[in-house]
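Hello,

I think I submitted the coenzyme A job twice by accident. Can you confirm which output corresponds to this input? Input:
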Amino acid sequence: MSYQAVRDNDCTIDPLAPGDLPEVMEIERCSYSHPWSEAVFLDCFRPDYRLWAFRHGGSLGGYAVVAYLYDEAHLLNLCVAKARRGEGAGRQLLRHLVARATHDGMQQTILEVRVSNSSAVALYESEGFRVIGHRPGYYPAANGREDAKVMALDLSTD
Ligand SMILES: CC(C)(COP(=O)(O)OP(=O)(O)OC[C@H]1O[C@@H](n2cnc3c(N)ncnc32)[C@H](O)[C@@H]1OP(=O)(O)O)[C@@H](O)C(=O)NCCC(=O)NCCS
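Support: Only one job matched these inputs. Its output is below.
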């Protein structure tokens, strides 16, 4: 894959590697009520997936997992370590994956987000994503299931 690293001060966004998974799993388990397993991450190292790492001072601060299907980039996971939140890492990762998806010819970025996840929804809306649907009971939750908002960003240039 042709790739140009993004650098901002001491921060870099580059491809996530299987060797990052110990750090990924630590962040993942601290961030979600229902975290992905390591096997799920390992299964994402495929040609039609893009996995991005946000690094700060050499350590992993966050990551994003995107699946390409035809002309659609599906954002499956966007996560920032608790200690690094509120510093712009999530926005940088999101802008990076959107720029790469556009470069790769994708026409749309799509994602699901828990209806209760107001900080993520605010981030997506501030980057131009719009709610295009609702999936009832999409996520497991402590007391049953939780609905998802489906959000999309048009990447087409015409
Ligand atoms: C959602 C998440 C990725 C945001 O990452 P972050 O690095 O903290 O976000 P940023 O610092 O780049 O902030 C970007 C925007 O997100 C929103 N946001 C971030 N934290 C917020 C908070 N605590 N409350 C409300 N809005 C918030 C704001 O709109 C913010 O823009 P602003 O700084 O101009 O107000 C992070 O909170 C996270 O990893 N959460 C756990 C995993 C998760 O829920 N992922 C999304 C799954 S769909």
